[in-house]
Amino acid sequence: MAAGIPIQSVSATVEAAPLEAELAGGSLPGTEARPSLRQLAMRGAAWTVGGYGASQVLRLGSNLVLTRLLFPEAFGLMALVYAFTQGLQMFSDLGLGPAVIRDRRGDDPTFINTAWTVQVIRGFVLWGCSWLLAGFIAQLFGEPMLARLLPVVGFTAVISGFNATAIFTAKRKLRLGRLSVLELSSQVTAISVMIAWALLSPSVWALVGGALVGAFVRMVGSHVFLHGVRPAFELRRDAAQALLRFGKWIFLSSAVYFAAQQGDRFFLARYVPIGVVGVYAIAVNIGQILQNTASRLSGQVLYPALSNLGRQHPGRLASGYYRARRHLDVALIGAGIVIVAGPPLIAFLYDDRYAAAGWMLQLLGLRAAMACVNVPAANCLVSQGHPHYAFLREAAKAGVMLVGLPAGWYFGGLHGLVWAAGLVEVPALVILWYGMARLRLLRPRGELLGLVYLAAGILGGFLIRLAVTA
Q1: Taking 60 as the threshold, does the pLDDT of residue 12 lie above it?
Q2: Is the pTM of this model over 0.90?
């Protein structure tokens, strides 16, 4: 670290302490007189759960409306567009957010300004790449519309590049109330634009317009509504080196994440009609509600909490992790339900055009269940300075995709392919458990509790099926 840069701000230390005590199951000296600071962590978790729950309700509700206004082909096209744009994001992910959250200089204006400058530059580079590759992608998948869609949607990278670093600061300090309100506001705005546009002109451009407007509202709101250092263009060599040192494993993890997370949609698009890709995307989106819940809580609450706890009281890390997991594992109940009751759930929510999403959701529920365990474990390991385990997790998933998808398609057609996608997290689970064991953080009893939640969800799924068929 460069001389003259504060190792850790007083505010970050003070606010971290109550959370460490909460996770470790005790209280730290001097924190008893600061109940409002202790409540900060609990309030952050409540905002995350409430905000994300509301977000998923909005997402599902808008999805139900839009699937009745648009055709499956529109969702298939956007599934490919989002897969491609996310791929560009992943192949250039420098881990700026996690670095600011974890680094001891995360409150230093110079460090923050450097991160923001790199973020802005990256946004323009990504947009340029979407222009350059749009024609090739359209020709590769035989969908000329992609040549027009990709550059327009790619502009969201430029918009997001100007997001204020106050987003990172809010996560670092667990001040998540305003951030949750901002994200919900941008989502409501995007959904409103999509539905209004689809009513006036039912085409895929309704989805594109909503994405652009939502990104713009989030960017403007991050500067106006959130508290934090107002970013300015600055590029300090020592700060950039620290960001890149931490970000190299995040970059590698994100690059293989693209193959692991989006390979199934690209593979499908080569062999089945675009409408089938749209139906599959519906099943994926519902399954991802569960794993995204675990991911959101892990990223916004667990990761900064464990980062602080590991710095201050490493001996309490394992107990703190499994205390948090007790709450995160509730998502496994939902995974168990969709594994059994996927078809009747889809039949209840969607019309006959999307019926095949039911059996797809059952198999993808396996992936969601294992992801609910893997995501917190990966965040725990990264928070302690071991981001290579996150890379190994994604590399294992990518390996399963690259081998399993063609094999599944060859032996079982569409069903075989979805089976391969559903089992993609299995080797990753083994790798992360190995990493946790090496750091002496793995507790079999804590892991077994997750199985209890999953079994409860499976039982609930059987009861739902019985009620539907009775």
Answers
A1: no
A2: no
Q: Is the pLDDT of residue 233 over 70?
A: yes
Q: Do the beta carbons of residue 314 and residue 302 sit within 8 Å? A: no
**For 292, left (φ over 0), alpha (ψ -120 to 50), or beta?**
alpha
SS3 330: coil
Domain boundaries, the chain: 43-248, 272-470
Q: Give me 297's structure tokens.
A: 């809580």
Please provide residue 424's backbone torsions phi and psi, each rounded to the nearest 5 degrees. Answer: -65, -25
The H or E element spanning position 178 is: helix 177-200
Instruction: Decide which of 19 and 218 is more confident.
Output: 218
The least confident of 1-10, 205-214, 399-408 is: 1-10
Distance CA 397, CA 296 (A): 20
**Residues 370 and 422 sit within 8 Å (Cβ to Cβ):** no
Structure confidence by residue, pLDDT tens digits, 278-319: 899 889 888 888 777 777 777 767 777 777 777 677 778 888
Q: What are the CA-CA distances from residue 386 to residues 287, 321, 438 (Å)?
A: 28, 16, 11
- The tokens describing 86, both together, are 């996310």
What b-and-e string marks burial along 321-338, b requiring 16 or more CB atoms within 10 Å of the CB?
Answer: bbebbeebbbbbbbbbbb
Q: What pLDDT does residue 300 have?
A: 66
Percent of the chain with pLDDT strictly greater than 70: 83
Burial 55-84 (b: 16+ CB within 10 A, else e): bbeebeebbeebbeebbbbbbbbbbbbbbb
pLDDT interval class at 92 (50, 70, 90): low
Q: How many other β-carbons are positioned within 10 Å of the β-carbon of residue 356? A: 18
Question: 87: which 2 tokens?
Answer: 């791929």
Contacts 24+ apart (CB under 8 A), 106-109: 106/12, 106/168, 106/169, 106/172, 107/6, 107/8, 107/9, 107/11, 107/12, 107/169, 107/172, 107/229, 108/5, 108/6, 108/9, 108/239, 109/229
The two three-digit tokens of residue 69, written as one number: 């206004």
| Distance separating alpha carbons of residues 457 and 330, to the nearest angstrom | 9
User: Residue 434 pLDDT > 90, yes or no?
Assistant: yes
| Nearest Cα residue to 158 out of 255, 228, 88 | 88
pLDDT at 2 (0 to 100): 37
Q: Which residues contact 440 (CB under 8 A, 6 or more apart)?
A: 318
Distance of CA 22 to the CA centre of its chain: 25
> What mean pLDDT do residues 96-110 have?
73
Structure-model confidence comparison of residues 96 and 43, the more confident one: 96
Q: What's the pLDDT score for residue 23?
A: 44
